[in-house]
């Protein structure tokens, strides 16, 4: 009964994210479960996966549902929306007056890149792997492919040339009933045809509401593990990726949360490993700040998790955003004045027992935007004058419009917790869009049409600034992404992964590949 209740609640949130369905129990009887994932609204958006068919031998119940941020699928609302961590209604602009800046006092407003609901699939490809039986020296280039952009990039158009044999493919696709099952089958077939290992992911921003319950007891852990295995076997997947945001940590406001979440997660990983065997993959998308213990602080050791997991995808992005006091890069290599960085995240995980050879560093292909207070950039001194940076500017709290389709038309949005807020701009662009829309020249090396490209040496990230519009855009390009890839190789990491495969052009892919395989990095 507990499992059915959880499924009913999650189904109601997915089918009607703007209001819960009264007949959710009917859908749970159909044996359908769903997954919503990150990111970019772009990144791992709402994903539906079917429940594992009840096995006659084991009588498996429908799979527990887990969901994530993305575009609202059943409500008439703008493409780019803010679903979670938004200011109270009184503290933000009324829906009919979107130009009024939101309250800066409301911290941690979720980036729409990570919050809109989308029925979609996401593919993560690994270009060269260090899986069981494969040399740990082979660097990985992982990618997420968003199926909701299939009109822009079909599965056959994914840049497979940057992947190699024994790669990994993470699938987050619409697999409800009938024809939609074909997307999973086609995905698995396509991945294997390219020598890539197909893996599916569960959880995500909106999909972590009941994760704590699903691993809380021995009985629940066994049930959940068997359901995941049944789903893997049905479609031919060779692994599972867990995206719990976050064990005993801040996440969606209504997430279930326990002090012993991390302990229970580890216990579940052991059960899952025993269920699927050592020849299958277990991976996880993890926070830069690590898994938390009962005291709310990062655990002293992550070594036990490494014993059960093949890789972790270190989410080293969204380190600045609409919640930030100042502008800044959302994926800095060095911390400087940011909340965190790639360097600090890797140092935390490796210093607490997680092998560098099992870590993939995240690189976002999307950009974030701010509106600055002034038209002239101020310079700040960092580390006793070692760095002079223009990356950190005072801003108004107003997120400017991003790429085509970004809208703040006065529609309200209801998140999976039932919280209703106004729609706002995401302010986000894919790197390709910065070039195609003329904010960068075709080489990507200079700004255009009023935008000036700056390079912040401290964080090793570029940004664009338009003084007349006061628009500030933090993004990744061939220089910064290539530096991250080379740095990851020097640190002995397994490689890097991207959000998402539609965002970068060949110049950035080439730079990342060169960084991963550079002789300088390999000798370090």
UniProtKB/TrEMBL annotation:
The keyword Zinc does not apply. Pfam families: Glyco_hydro_18. Transmembrane segments: none annotated. Gene3D superfamilies: 3.10.50.10, Glycosidases. Residues 139-519 form the GH18 domain. One of its GO terms (molecular function) is chitinase activity. Keywords: Signal. PROSITE patterns: GH18_2. GO terms for cellular component: extracellular region. Residues 1-20 form the signal peptide. InterPro entries: Chitinase_II/V-like_cat (IPR011583), Chitinase_insertion_sf (IPR029070), GH (IPR017853), Glyco_hydro18_cat (IPR001223), Glycosyl_Hydrlase_18 (IPR050314). The keyword Plastid does not apply. GO terms for biological process: carbohydrate metabolic process; chitin catabolic process. PANTHER family: CHITINASE, CHITINASE 12-RELATED. This is GH18 domain-containing protein. The lineage of its organism: Eukaryota, Fungi, Dikarya, Basidiomycota, Pucciniomycotina.
């Amino acid at each position: 009964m507990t499992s059915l209740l959880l499924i009913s609640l999650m189904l109601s949130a997915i089918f009607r994210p703007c209001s819960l369905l009264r007949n959710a129990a009917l859908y749970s009887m159909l044996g359908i479960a769903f997954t919503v994932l990150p990111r970019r609204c772009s990144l791992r958006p709402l994903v539906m996966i079917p429940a594992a068919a009840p096995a006659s031998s084991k009588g498996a119940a429908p799979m527990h549902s887990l969901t994530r941020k993305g575009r609202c699928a059943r409500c008439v609302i703008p493409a780019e929306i803010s679903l979670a961590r938004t200011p109270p209604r009184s503290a933000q602009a009324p829906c009919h007056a979107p130009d009024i800046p939101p309250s800066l006092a409301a911290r941690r407003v979720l980036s729409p890149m990570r919050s809109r609901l989308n029925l979609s699939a996401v593919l993560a490809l690994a270009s060269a792997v260090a899986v069981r039986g494969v040399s740990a020296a082979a660097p990985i280039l992982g990618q997420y492919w968003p199926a909701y952009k299939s009109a822009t990039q079909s599965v056959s158009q994914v840049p497979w040339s940057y992947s190699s044999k024994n790669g990994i493919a993470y699938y987050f696709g619409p697999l409800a009933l009938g024809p939609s099952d074909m997307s999973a089958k086609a995905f698995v077939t396509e991945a294997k045809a390219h020598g890539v290992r197909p893996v599916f992911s569960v959880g995500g921003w909106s999909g972590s509401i009941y994760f704590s319950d699903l691993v809380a007891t021995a009985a629940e852990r066994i049930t959940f593990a068997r359901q995941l295995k049944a789903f893997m076997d049905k479609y031919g997947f060779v692994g599972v990726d867990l995206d719990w945001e976050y064990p005993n940590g801040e996440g969606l406001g209504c997430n279930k949360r326990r002090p012993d979440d991390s302990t229970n997660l580890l216990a579940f990983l052991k059960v899952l490993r025993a269920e699927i065997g050592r020849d299958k993959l277990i991976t996880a998308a993890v926070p830069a700040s690590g898994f938390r213990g009962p005291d709310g602080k990062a655990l002293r050791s992550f070594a036990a998790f490494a014993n059960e997991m093949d890789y972790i995808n270190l989410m080293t992005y969204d380190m600045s955003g609409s919640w930030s006091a100042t502008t800044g890069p959302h994926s800095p290599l060095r911390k400087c004045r940011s909340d965190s960085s790639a360097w600090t995240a890797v140092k935390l995980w490796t210093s607490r027992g997680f092998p560098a050879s099992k870590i993939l560093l995240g690189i976002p292909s999307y950009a974030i935007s701010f509106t600055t207070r002034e038209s002239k950039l101020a310079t700040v001194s960092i580390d006793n004058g070692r760095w002079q940076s223009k990356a950190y500017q005072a801003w108004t709290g107003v997120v400017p419009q991003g790429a085509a389709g970004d809208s703040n038309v006065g529609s309200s949005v209801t998140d999976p917790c039932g919280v209703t807020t106004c729609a706002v701009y995401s302010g986000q662009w894919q790197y390709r869009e910065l070039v195609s829309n003329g904010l960068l020249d075709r080489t990507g090396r200079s700004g255009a049409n009023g935008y000036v490209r700056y390079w912040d040496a401290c964080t090793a990230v570029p940004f664009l600034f338009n003084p007349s519009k006061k628009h500030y855009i933090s993004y990744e390009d061939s220089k910064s992404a290539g530096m991250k890839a080379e740095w990851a190789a020097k640190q002995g990491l397994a490689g890097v992964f991207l959000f998402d495969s539609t965002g970068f052009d060949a110049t950035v892919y080439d730079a990342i590949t060169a960084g991963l395989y550079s002789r300088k990095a390999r000798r370090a």
